[in-house]
Design brief:
Keywords: Cell cycle, Cell division, Chromosome partition, Cytoplasm. This protein is α+β, with helices and mostly antiparallel strands and about 200 residues long. The chain has helices spanning about 5-15, 25-30, 35-50, 75-80, 90-105, 110-115, 120-130, 150-155, 175-195; strands at about 20-25, 55-60, 65-70, 105, 130-135, 145-150.
């Protein structure tokens, strides 16, 4: 296969791996090419991203590689978050955000246990909107990533602190009671979003 096609596949896999990132070993296994080949492709990608006319960059944390936006463009990302047209979030994203807000720090698996469905996309949406962030890894098997809300989360929803969140029962007797309280949380967020939408 041509180098350009291999490079395109690596780029796609980097994008698809999202915030979790991916290692050279994983790329090598998935693409069935040598690690040396992957290293060469990564160097080419990194060189290309360093060009001033590219909007993303390749970073490495330990052995894991991620695609991320360039810090010099942060002003524009902030404007994007402040644009009413982009403020709409799916119910899945709102549910996930509520769970994280109440249970933080929390892992993706724990979120999925509460929601009962996969939550990769909602988590990625919230990360891209800077409403949640990675805050370390849980000291359990696999060292899963922990997520928590950000200062932007408080600002965006007009909260001064997490204490402003609708209170949950101290000892909810049923899961339904917990869901009922969470629904109030969703409604509050939905109202905020609707107020920001253009008339």
């Amino acid at each position: 296969m041509e180098i350009s096609k291999l490079k395109a596949i690596v780029e796609g896999l980097l994008f698809a791996s999202g915030n979790e990132g991916i290692t050279i070993k994983q790329l090598s296994k998935i693409m069935e090419v040598t690690e040396a080949t992957i290293e060469h492709l990564m160097e080419e990608l990194k060189y290309g991203y360093e060009s001033t006319d590219r909007g993303i960059m390749l970073i490495q944390a330990h052995e894991v590689f991620h695609l991320t936006t360039k810090p010099e463009h942060s002003e524009y990302y902030k404007r994007l978050l402040e644009t009413p047209q982009t403020s709409r979030m799916s119910q899945a994203a709102l549910e996930t955000l509520a769970i994280i807000a109440y249970q933080q720090p929390i892992t993706r698996t724990e979120i999925e246990d509460i929601r009962g469905v996969k939550s990769d996309r909602p988590v990625q949406t919230l990360l891209s909107r800077l409403l949640i962030e990675e805050v370390g890894r849980k000291d359990t098997v696999g060292k899963p990533m922990l997520f928590a809300t950000t200062k932007e989360f408080l600002t965006y929803f007009g909260l001064t602190s997490l204490e402003d969140l609708p209170p949950l029962p101290e000892n909810p007797e049923t899961e339904g009671e917990l869901e009922s309280e969470a629904d109030l949380f969703f409604e509050r967020f939905s109202e905020n979003i609707n107020e920001n939408e253009p008339k």
